[in-house]
Amino acid sequence: MLTMLSRNWWLVALRGVIAILFGLVTLFFPGIALSSFVLLFGAYAIIDGLAAVWSSVQHRTEQGWWIHLLEGVVSVIAGILAFVYPGITALIALYIIAFWAIMTGVFELLAAIRLRKEITGEFWMGLSGVISVIFGIVLIAAPGAGILAVLTLVGIYAIAFGVFLIMLSLRLRSHATHSNTPTHTMA
Question: Is the full-model pTM beyond 0.70?
Answer without folding.
Answer: no
